[in-house]
Amino acid sequence: MYPIASLNVDYLIYRNWLSLTCILLVFYINYFVLVDLFFFKNRKPQFYILNILLIIMQYLLLSYSLKLNLFHPTVDGKIIRQIRSGAMTTVQLILPIILSIGMCVSLKINARFNKNQLQLQQVKQTQLNAEIKYLKYQVQPHFLFNTLNNIYALIDISPEIAKESIHTMSKMMRYLLHDASNNKVPLVKEVEFLERYINLMQLRVSSNLTLKKSFPIINQPIQIAPLLLISFVENAFKHGIDAVQSSFINIKLSIESSTINYSVINSSFPEKEKVTDSGIGLENLKKRLELVYPDKFKLNTTEKNNQYIATLTLNFKE
Q: Torsion over CA of 251, 308, 227 and 273, rounded to 10 degrees?
């Protein structure tokens, strides 16, 4: 018997490295070439045939290499014992290679799935942003049409007030062009825009209108989607005022923790002929809320006892 210390155990390292090299070779050939060119392009028969040929070639290479003296135990350069072929059977040679192919395919499928999911999310986000932008831009001509009508009516009645109205409108347009083009705006700027619109609309309404508004002092850096508050007020001024009968508009905004409570209550005149586009602004608002704040808002509109009530509860936290 030879002392264990005198045995040359390098052969074990060589055998392990040989086996590992063959496994890695098959793995990377599949990873960088075969899976992409054949498996993912519906050429699976070619993929399986090429892998079978690859496995056979690796098996023959391993079988031949393991017969070399380098892969047998030696003492002083002399082989002391031949490693029988049964020590590493055909299954033991082939199975790790097959497993490496399976692992490679699994990794590539997982990577492809994650990439497809990411691309799908990006496409959905792009579509969502486009739809939000479209809905937001719908508000602007609607608002512009109503405001220009108001200024037009003032030109003959009071040219000076009409000039002042145009100046106010220019500030509002600046908000529409610059701030409102962003995904989110400070709530304080949205309220500023709303107050300018209210002041502008009040210039031409009759003395029969009683208007009350309540806006909080905003000390928090609250950000919301732009042009969410204007639709209620537009609707109230357009459809809640009568030239003869007494009319009223009550506007209230409050903030509680992470929630905005907003309501507009105005007089309603059922006997008046309804304008066909009366619901455009509110329908637009609902669609934008569903896109930007899914499951974070409650929007209600009711009409009873000659009153039109519109309320919005919005959780503005991300």
A: -130
Q: Which two tokens stand for residue 249?
A: 């508009």
Model confidence band, residue 77 (pLDDT cutoffs 50, 70, 90): low
The number of distinct structural domains making up the chain is 2
3-class DSSP assignment, residue 192: helix
Residue 73's contacts (CB-CB under 8 Å, 6 or more residues apart) are: 7, 8, 9, 11, 79, 80, 81, 83
Of 65, 85, 69, 87, the C-alpha closest to 77 is 69
**Which residue range(s) make up the domain with 100?**
4-118
81, 182: one domain: no
| pLDDT tens, position by position, 119-178 | 777 766 666 666 656 556 555 666 677 777 777 777 777 777 778 788 888 888 888 777
Are the C-beta atoms of 203 and 237 separated by less than 8 Å? no
Choose one of 65, 87, 118: the last residue of a domain.
Answer: 118
| Greater pLDDT, 201 or 77 | 201
Give me the count of residues in the chain: 318
